[in-house]
Amino acid sequence: MALKRFSTAIDGTIPVVALLYNDEELLGSQDTVGIYDGLQKSPRHQNGTVSITSHRLFYIDSSNPEAASFAIDLERISRTDYYAGLFTSSAKATLYLSAPATSTEQRPGGAYTQQDSADDRVLTSGGPGEAVGGGWECQVCAYKNPPGLSPGASRVCELCGVPRDALAPSTSTSSSDSPSHHVPLSHLSSSLPSPGLAGRSTPTPSTPNQIRSSKDPLPCPACTFLNHPSLRSCELCDTPLPRHQSSKRILKSAPVSRPGSPDGDDLEDGGEGVIKVSFRKGGDKPIYALLKRSLKGKAWGVWVATPISRADSTDPQNRSVGISAILRSVETTTAAREDTLQDALQDLEALRIKAKDMVRLAAELNDRLSQATSASSPSQNAYGLSEGGVMTPNQEPEEATFIRSSLTQLGLHMENSPVTLDMVRDERKWVEDLGRELGKVLQGSTSASSSGKDAKGLMSERGIIALDEAWGGWNRARGMALIPPSTFLQAIPLLPSYTSPPIHTRTFASGLRVLHRPEYGRSAFAARLAGFLVSRGEKSTLEIAMEMLNDPEYGDSYGGAVGGEKQTLSVALTQEMIEDAERDGDACRDDAGECAILGGGGVGGMGGAGEVKWYPNLFLGYAWDGMEVEETV
Amino acid sequence: MSLSTHTTPSGFVLPSIHAAPPFFTKQPNPATEAIVIEQWSKLILSYARHRKLFMLRVDDAETPGGEWDEVLRNERINRRLPPTHLESILTAMVVKGVAAYEPAKQTRSVLLYWRLPEEWAEVLHQWATSTGQMNTIMTYYEITEPAVPSPLSNIPIPLLRKAIAILAKTNRAQVIAIADGEGVRFFAPAK
């Protein structure tokens, strides 16, 4: 019968979860179901629970879980049908079972071939389940594969990907490849009228991995002593003998074990069978859906998709084992990674093109704004439908300013397209143009542009800017035609002639370079600092950074607060400038951390007690006003 | 910023710069630091002369309570001269010749020359003349611990020896070995 041929007996007293392979997943279950073997009800399986996993379908009988439970590999299910039920007839799922594809293609080999291979499957994955699902040692790399994997996954070595039986002359998986010396033997054995154990343990000398006859001496897994088959543990070392346990299990699950003689059904059905699952109390739809999903998922074949096995499967001619296979798999992985990387870089290319579009869009937007502003008439059609008719003339400059300032903040604001080398042939001219462009980026367009209002530049509200920020801002503004740092440095010396007030470069002792307006020049700033310190008293670096710019007398030409916000210098930059001033003798320091009697000294000091305060240079021009001790002899 | 002079309990008038916190910090700017050191050495020598102090040790800056506290510390502005800064000041003073390491071959204590050894030689000879010690043999102890206080009271022996050596060069003194150490005989300068 189909049920016997395709199912595997299991011990239903064990929870389904414990029966799963390591890579198997329980999806759902439904109780009160019956099983039809073929078209007839299977009398032993009329009330049980069906569980669907990623690999198998379990039936756990509720009245006789130990003997009547079974599992079917989903791999065998070629197709399914669903019958919704009518009147007293309950919903049914029909499972059409077939032997593995490899053997069904071997039709010429005859029905027995298929039956035999099906038998092999049952044998290898059923009775000696420990042998397939259990741990094994790879013959090539000697890796000990852990037990508990599904048959599919355990067919190849987890480490090197070499099939488990690669070196064996004939195996269950290769049985269809060599039917010539396989068929007669199995034919013989399967047709032998030996009941139970004898028939189940088909002796096939060419398949070392398969079960030995129970009459054969049983080698101990530990000491290799050949024990009598009826012994439970090794005679010499007491190691439990695996064969014995499985035979005991088989005895228990007699109905699904290989029968002694073939059934008539087998001959009629060939390699196919039908099993129906009858849902007596509903629950059919979710379980059927799960079954379909699981069949679609083909979890048992997933291992084939791993890179290692793909390397083998794509190149069956060069299929090899061992180190070379490992190396090839590494190569394949590398190649795949390179492909991925190239794909990624192509994406980047696309992004660059998009960026160009965005810059152009910004330019267009700017142009439109300019036109709209210059044409003071309320014809705002250029703005499109979104703002269209509702806009009033006095709203417009505000909007325009907002958009424009947004563009500037993004660094996307350019009056016109950036200067590139191919626009200008002469390199000297090019650098000059770059200098002019950089000046505009930094100071905004001071020339009377069509926009009417000066666009803001990077340094419109700041007197000093670090070189990297200027470079970054310029390149953002240029969008596509990026400027390398070397070219940037070439353009900098030309800045003073294209900016007003001239922007100069300044290099601090630490190597930090900044662009600055005149009031941040070395001597100019030192003088301002000295004046600030003289009039406002000693200050810490932080205080100078926070307060000096807002000081109406000693701040920069932006007049302290801009837009209601207090302007501050960065502390690090302030530190650099003060130290330069100190180096020039325009300031001197008081290291309270080092010199204080209380509160300073030691580690860090407390709060602000340990920080350096700056004084104007008190020593310059100091005349001794202490006591002149006259010599009295 | 107005800084003012300050009179210490010992009657010494501290310069106004002593009330400026930066005065106590070692200035990274060499030019500024040169001024700082110059002012410090002037202050130290004045104070030494005022208090008749001959030795200055780096330890004086480390541990409060010494005779140099009035100068090396300024409680009013919560500042003290860090020992490292004092050491560099002492080094500069030795280089300038207004101090000498005592004992030699270390840098943590100096003999202050608020009078140079040559000046001390003159003072010594003048004192010997005025107290009528010509042509008599005197022990060093008699010079450093005279019954009547003199400018030479408590003068350190090394400094005294230097002064005598200078006098000996010009034939105005002679070092004589006596039973309990060394003695000196002063001569009137050759006419």
Automatic annotation (TrEMBL), chain A:
Coiled-coil parts of chain: 341-368
Any one biological process term the GO annotation gives: protein transport to vacuole involved in ubiquitin-dependent protein catabolic process via the multivesicular body sorting pathway
This protein's GO CC annotations: ESCRT II complex; late endosome membrane
PROSITE patterns registered for this protein in UniProt: GLUE
Predominant subcellular localization, coarse grouping: cytoplasm
Keyword Oxidoreductase: no
UniProt GO MF annotations: phosphatidylinositol-3-phosphate binding; ubiquitin binding; zinc ion binding
Localisation: Cytoplasm; Endosome
Cross-referenced Pfam families: EAP30, Vps36_ESCRT-II
Biased composition (Polar residues): 102-116, 201-212, 371-383
This protein's record includes keyword Zinc: yes
Keywords, comma-separated and alphabetical: Coiled coil, Cytoplasm, Endosome, Metal-binding, Protein transport, Transport, Zinc, Zinc-finger
Residues annotated as domain GLUE N-terminal: 10-307
Origin superkingdom: Eukaryota
Region (Disordered): 102-128, 168-214, 245-271, 371-394
Composition bias, Low complexity: 169-195
PANTHER family per UniProt: VACUOLAR PROTEIN-SORTING-ASSOCIATED PROTEIN 36 (PTHR13128)
Family of this protein: Belongs to the VPS36 family.
Subunit (UniProt): Component of the endosomal sorting complex required for transport II (ESCRT-II).
Function, in words: Component of the ESCRT-II complex (endosomal sorting complex required for transport II), which is required for multivesicular body (MVB) formation and sorting of endosomal cargo proteins into MVBs.
UniProt-recorded name of the protein: Vacuolar protein-sorting-associated protein 36
UniProt organism field: Coprinellus micaceus
Automatic annotation (TrEMBL), chain B:
Pfam family, one: ESCRT-II
One annotated GO molecular function: protein homodimerization activity
Gene Ontology terms: biological process: protein transport to vacuole involved in ubiquitin-dependent protein catabolic process via the multivesicular body sorting pathway
Keywords of this entry: Protein transport, Transport
Keyword Protein transport on entry: yes
GO cellular component terms, semicolon-separated: ESCRT II complex
This protein's record includes keyword Transferase: no
Organism: Coprinellus micaceus (Glistening ink-cap mushroom)
Protein name stated in the entry: ESCRT-II complex, vps25 subunit
Entry's family note: Belongs to the VPS25 family.
